[in-house]
Amino acid sequence: MQQPLNIEQNVLEKIRSLPVEKQQEVLNFVEFLAQKNQVERPRRSLKGLWADLDVNITSEDIAQVRREMWRRCLGKTQKYS
Questions:
Q1: Rg of the chain's alpha carbons, rounded to an integer?
Q2: What are the pLDDT digits (tens) for 61-75?
Q3: Closest CA to 58 of 47, 73, 72
Q4: 62 Cβ partners below 8 Å, 6+ apart?
């Protein structure tokens, strides 16, 4: 197996020989691999964030807010139609 520096040099030489469009594809792929390699932190429940605030939000409360939001959103888009 090649040493890390030799791999880096080899990759750079090959990338430099590619047209700019292909270099962009390589960059996109490397960014994809880097993102895929990141450790994803477990998501915390929002309930834990407001647990000590004595807030009780029900699914009906959330549904009502969503309906209001969509009603407002649709009202704005219809004005511009």
A1: 25
A2: 999 999 999 988 887
A3: 47
A4: none
- C-alpha distances (whole Å) from 38 to each of 8, 25, 33 are 21, 20, 9
How far is the C-alpha of 15 from the C-alpha of 60, rounded, in Å?
55
Q: Is the pTM of this model over 0.90?
A: no
Q: How far is residue 10's CA from residue 30's CA, in Å, rounded to a whole number?
A: 15
Hey, what amino acid is at 9?
Q
- Phi/psi for 31 (5° steps) reads -65, -40
CA torsion, ordered 27, 33, 35, 36, to nearest 10 deg: 160
Give the separation between CA 28 and CA 36, rounded to whole angstroms: 12
